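Hello Y.,

Per our agreement to keep a running log of every chain we model this quarter, I'm adding this entry. I've kept the format consistent with earlier entries: sequence first, then predicted structure.
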Amino acid sequence: MKNTFVFSFLSIILVMTLSCKDPERKKTIFRNYLKNKEWIVNEGGLIIPDGGKIYSMSPRDTALIFNFHGVTFLDEEKFKSYDAWQCGNDCFTEIHGRYYFTEANQIKMEVDSITRSEFCNAPTQTFKPPKVMSFNLLKEGKQLKLKRK
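Predicted structure for the entry above:
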């Protein structure tokens, strides 16, 4: 009887502990065609929580290009949005976060931090919980559009 009581008590504690954990994001079954790709943002600027409604993007090729906003989907879940400018602008911004597909043509992007180079005179912003952005993905030939939901 005593063992049953102890087992029941420990089971209840275990269930309570596990139910209080933050729910982990489930792996999606949707094909990730963004992974390891770099894009130049033609319209919309930096991909940030309070940014544009539509981002029009082209694949970044190996050509040397100056003065652009870009986004790189680093792996299956991390991204970096950044700007790159020629000499004369020494203030550079990078947005770091994670992304995941919610549907075949929809993604959520969670912004963890915004960092600026030392010449911007602005501290790094860290978001806990992360800032969440939701987008529909529209393919137009080689172009890709992120349309904010």
